[in-house]
Amino acid sequence: MTRHVQLDSIEHRHLRVDTTRGEAFGDGVMLAPTFPAEFREIQAHYPIVFHRDGDGHGDGMIQPVALFGLQRGRNLFLGRGRWDAAYVPLAIERQPFLVGAGGQALSVHIDLDSPRLQTGRGEALFLEHGGVSGFLERMQSVLLALHDGLATVPVFAEALTAHGLVEPFSLDVRLDDGARHRLEGFLTIDEQRVRALDPATAGQLHADGHLEAIHMAMASVSRFRDLIDRMNRADGSDR
Questions:
Q1: Which pLDDT belongs to residue 165?
Q2: What's the pTM value of the predicted model, to 2 decimals?
Q3: Residue 67: is it exposed, middle or buried by C-beta count within 10 angstroms (0-12/13-18/19+)?
Q4: Total count of domains within the chain
């Protein structure tokens, strides 16, 4: 359940946020949405793939996502109350906060049903004698960057689709213990189509700010090896 309300400095002055990372706090997810301006940080740690809105089929808009695992509901970056990577994607870091809109203005909302919310421990949201805490200031900047970044996705997705630069893919994995897993239902950048772009099209993609993000997504594919290694270690420790 979720219960989103606008953050209020009086009503919510005693709330604190537990920043521990774990499944109990909602971090047990396979993926999170991302956006082109975040790709440079994402590609250093996670594969960037794409899925279509809706049921994943048809002509729905494509959305880039960062992968944390190869199975639904499994995040291979969780362990001992921490996130095992130097960069936590903004869509994860922002929890339990959300952007709320009222007319033209944006506001900070919070999920009152989030298990992260505490009253006795964690990061304070407001200072004792008024004003917002450094933690809340950081969350405000995260929310704004996420809001603005996700707003750029439709134009980026349209460019990829218009030039036929994404293709379906599947990944078959055999772990050290012999177990087999198959990842499917996602899209990746079609590297051959990118390399075959004529100079005018490549130049336009660069001028529009898309070409760097395309190459970042292509480079991120090397991170699948890390996911497989993490899965081997996790499954081996379970035995």
A1: 97
A2: 0.91
A3: buried
A4: 1
